[in-house]
Amino acid sequence: MRRWARLGNGFWCGFAIVLTAGITVRMRPADAPARTTTGGTGPGLVRIDAGLRALLPGGTRPRFADLDRDGVLDIVVAHRDRVRAYRGDGDRFVPMRPPLPPLASGSVFVADIDDDAHPDVLVAGEDGIRGARRHPSGRRWHPVGPLAGGAALRDATPIDGGIVALGRDGAVTRVRLPVDRPTVDTLGRVPGAARTIAADVDRDGRPDVVVAGRGIAAWLNRGDGRLVADAGLPFASHATDAAALPHARGVDVVAVGPRLGLVRCRRAPDGAWRMIARRTTPYLAVAAADIDGDGTLDVVAARRTGIDVFGDGRVARKPTRAVRVRALDAPRIAIGDIDRDGRDEALVTDRRGAIALRAPTR
Question: Of 1, 9, 234, 332, which is the most buried if we count CB atoms within 10 A?
Fold first, then answer.
């Protein structure tokens, strides 16, 4: 039996009534009348029937990772009260067993912090970085933290055997592992910063630290344990989200904000940062993904009333694919091969709903 249901905040999605045992993921037929794609120069996007509203409330960015190493993506979600993990099981997500230990909500990320080849779950929140390490047997989780001195954090990202954390006060710190003897170094301060990412912006084969806020601030990874401050690039207004965009000649940084629009920035070999493309559309969230499966990353950007895909990262051109939605509220984008077809899908969440999108099958 197929019905239409609103997944909060203007998202409409058909789903099969089979949600008692887990969250079912089904592909909508390509000719479904409610695909409602608009704009763009390509054939648009197909919505994946993912029954995700019950699984993804709260408006924080979910993370995909193969936590149990079975070859199927799992998902970690920061609910309002705590962080939960769901195991990918065929065409659905089911609660992970054993469940994560109690973790307060925050910015979720996944990294192998103890070098045992098992992904660990970490959360940057009000009391620093806390998390859970998965025992090699898979039968239990070990609590981690607090790390980063217990300071209130906005975001964090793993990099080169450690974690770089962004405080709510703009402080950028590095937590050196191992987790049983962590040390914390202060890198600098970026007032108003919203996002931290790892990206090899100087093209030396090592991940660098990039912080987006009222511009781009960067610390270059010298490979000897040092992270050295770089020149960066100021913006006229704040970025709310950013993503690394690898390409044939290096890695660019794409940043978005309601007044900033969408900008693509590149660090030249001489060390100078330049804005190489800009759109004034007030985007709120951004990610890089190979949506069309051609081997080159695209840019996925969410604005209040729509989600656009810029093929091959060409943000100066019109979107190649687009879908209209209604009144997104603080959207976030997660990327993963949800339906295991070898191509990336975009999972867009906000405070009241969720939608999963993919390019139509040729």
Answer: 332
**Cα separations in angstroms, 328 against 141, 206, 331:** 35, 36, 6
Beta partners for 57? none
- Quote the tokens at residue 142: 């070990």
Task: Give me 74's structure tokens.
Answer: 């799992």
pTM exceeds 0.85, yes or no: no
Distances in whole angstroms, Cα of residue 166 to Cα of each of 49, 104, 211, 275: 35, 17, 8, 24
Q: pLDDT digits over 86-121, tens only? A: 888 766 778 888 999 988 888 898 988 887 888 899
Please give the Cα distance from 143 to 313 (Å, whole number): 39
**Distance from C-alpha of 30 to C-alpha of 35, rounded to nearest angstrom:** 8
Which one-letter DSSP state was computed for residue 310? E
- Map tokens 């970490």 to a residue: 122
Strands 233-234 and 215-221: antiparallel
Residue 160 burial (10 A CB sphere; 0-12, 13-18, 19+): middle
Report yes or no: 257 and 265 within 8 Å, Cβ to Cβ: no
